[in-house]
C-alpha cells in the first residue's frame, strides 16, 4: 500500500486550522490516481465536495472522469450530501462504478 505525506490544500498562512483526511482510491480510481491512498490537509470546515475538488486538482487527467461517476464513503458510510463536513482523521473513499452483479 502506498501512502504519501500529507499534501496541503491551502497556502501556508501560519494560523489557518487544517484537518487531515485520508483519501483512499479503489479500482479505476486507484489506477487513475497512481496510488492506493494519500493524506491531504484541508481547511477546517471543508466539505466532501471541497475535498473532491482538491483531489481533482492534485491529480489532473483521467481521474477527473472517474470522480464524475464515482460514489463516495466517509468513514465507510455512503455519502449522499456532499456538503457534509470532514473532521480531522476522516477517511474519504472514492469508489468508481463497478460492473457485475
Report a brief summary of the structure.
The protein is of the alpha/beta class and 101 residues long. The chain has helices at residues 28-33, 48-58, 63-69; strands spanning 3-8, 18-25, 37-43, 71-74, 77-78, 91-95.
What does this structure look like?
With 101 residues, the protein is an alpha/beta fold. Helix content is 24%, strand content 32%. Strands 1-3-2-6-4-5 form a six-stranded mixed beta sheet. A hairpin with a 2-residue loop joins strand 4 and strand 5. The longest helix has 11 residues. It is globular, with a radius of gyration of 13 Å. The model has no long low-confidence stretch (mean pLDDT 87).
For the structure shown, list the relevant keywords.
alpha/beta, 101 residues, 24% helix
What layout of secondary structure does this protein have?
Layout: E1 3-8, E2 18-25, H1 28-33, E3 37-43, H2 48-58, H3 63-69, E4 71-74, E5 77-78, E6 91-95
